[in-house]
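FAQ: What does a ligand-bound record look like?

Like this one, built around nicotinamide-adenine-dinucleotide:
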Amino acid sequence: MNIKNYINGQYENPINKEWIDNYCPANGEVYGKIPNSSKADVENAYNAAQSAFPSWSQTTFEARSRILIKISELLEANLQRFAEAESKDNGKPISLAKTVDIPRAASNFRFFGNAITQFASESHESVGHNAMNYTLRQPIGVVGCISPWNLPLYLFTWKIAPAIAAGNCLVAKPSEVTPMTAYLLGEICNEAGLPKGVLNIVHGLGTTTGQAIIEHPDIKAISFTGGTITGAHIAKVAAPMFKKLSLELGGKNPNIIFADCDYNDMLETTVRSSFSNQGQICLCGSRIFVETSIYKKFKKDFVEKVKKLKVGHPSDESTNIGALVSKTHLEKVLNYIEIAKNENGIILCGGEQVIVKDFENGYYLEPTVIEVSNDECRINQEEVFGPVVTIMPFNNEDEVLQMANKVKYGLSATLWTNDLKRTMRMSSQIQAGIIWVNTWMMRDLRTPFGGVKASGIGREGGFEALRFFTEAKNVCIKF
Ligand code: NAD
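The answer part, i.e. the structure of the complex:
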């Protein structure tokens, strides 16, 4: 089937009639076409957004809230259909799409539909000067939202919901690798009564469609989630044009395990934090550091559990590990396993491609655990973004803290300990935007979300997102 752009509330073919193949990762077959939209399509999307802006920016927050909550309800009502589409497009297990991706996309709309009714600006009485200052929080205008392939609808809606709630109009682009659920979303927006032109979705390659969005002179803000190299390129193009920028980029997150932790809970969660979504979550704890006294036991128990994970077709409800998202990505991850071997990494389990019966051309890989002895090796420093983790022992807090921080990234970290003082010390010293203690990926949508160092700039989530998608204006009245 051919996916189309969603512009001004209607589905449109790309003007240049250029199409890209859409692959099903589970069997390696092409199952559809995606527009490779050009500047002209982005211009049409921009014009639709620009025309919708005067009215949408003046729509009451109650009306905006009602529409966003309606979108959320319609997504929930279409859970099965969207989950199947996401699983087929991305290769992720259907069980994950049904319990995480689509419910979270619905929550994003509901959350920001509610949040906008509580969003307030400040006032400052300048006592002694007979003046009152207040702050307006005005929508920016037309904004660009660009998202990656790993959690397609989940991350796409994490951007577009607050942007719409705050009164902006959008030109948005999902990843060309996983366009399907963003395509289906257009229908739901129409059914929910979102005025035409508020949300425009253009599909295509980053270097053509994405590039046209970031260099558009009148798109005033870019909210981007994706790789660090792409983020740096976007900053280079957009910063001299004085666009507002939010960049959520790569990670190489430490998972630090102390001997005093609740062992069983840690073990269960560490399997999840290593391999959920085939390890293709920016928050996965891909560097596991274990206190020496429990290292041997952990190594044995962890590898035993990982070996039990079932690699299989994503639509099989019993599958734990589905297909990687693309052939190119599978090759990249396999190459990293070779790099690790050449660096004297010891493959404790996994490391090989899996041939799933009847789906021999799918992109399957065993969950892989690599023991390393040097934390500065490439496999421990570079983002692999697949079902591959490293493990190594540590002797004390100072040593592990140094290793945790000795990477260019700083997105998240997980800490397993029951020592409160240590928790407080380490949480304040680990260089990351998010620290989970005795849990992983427990999300409260009100909290600030984002990274430091090469993991990006800016924060999403809660009022942070609404602040990003509004411009603060100070009004000072002397009386
Ligand atoms: P990517 O950077 O290749 O692509 C992301 C998006 O950017 C896609 O829609 C792509 O088409 C677009 N793009 C590419 N080049 C562009 C350009 N020149 N101009 C404008 N847009 C362009 O990333 P990916 O491979 O899709 O995703 C994986 C990466 O995303 C990983 O590094 C992962 O860590 C990161 N990620 C980060 C977070 C986070 O919240 N920090 C969340 C998920 C994924």
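Follow-up question: can I read anything off the structure? Yes, for example: The mean pLDDT is 98.
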